[in-house]
Design brief:
Length: 127
């Protein structure tokens, strides 16, 4: 089975030697996204809620480029700089995954790239 690189200019470009996503058969593995504005590659201003919103919007764009939607996501991993921000992240997250949300893990990490407060990676199954 071959792997296919998925890339779009409507989401932030990778800031290192990795792909925005890799498709292998009907599986799509999305790299972690932080709250970068796609046009400028700059971290957006705001707290955990604003950053979570931007991260999930970026994930949506990569999914769209691969021919999917958030409904295709089966697993996410959320990395928070402060686990105390879990409720704030969760409130925004719930607006993106309203019906049949994916499985999820959430962990606190000591730091994230560019000083981000939240990073989310995902796995999706495409039709």
């Amino acid at each position: 089975m071959e792997k296919e690189v998925v890339a779009t200019q409507t989401a932030p470009a990778a800031i290192g030697p990795y792909s925005q996503a890799i498709r292998c058969g009907n599986l799509l593995f999305l790299s972690g996204q932080i709250a970068l504005e796609p046009a400028t590659a700059q971290l957006i201003e705001g707290g955990t809620a604003e950053q979570t919103r931007r991260v999930l919007q970026n994930i949506e764009q990569v999914l769209t480029a691969a021919g999917g939607t958030l409904q295709n996501v089966v697993k996410t991993t959320v990395f928070l700089q402060r686990l105390d921000d879990f409720a704030e992240m969760n409130q925004v997250y719930a607006t993106f995954f309203v019906d049949r949300p994916p499985a999820r893990s959430a962990v606190e990490v000591s730091s994230l790239p560019r000083g981000a407060l939240v990073e989310i990676e995902a796995v999706a199954i495409l039709d």
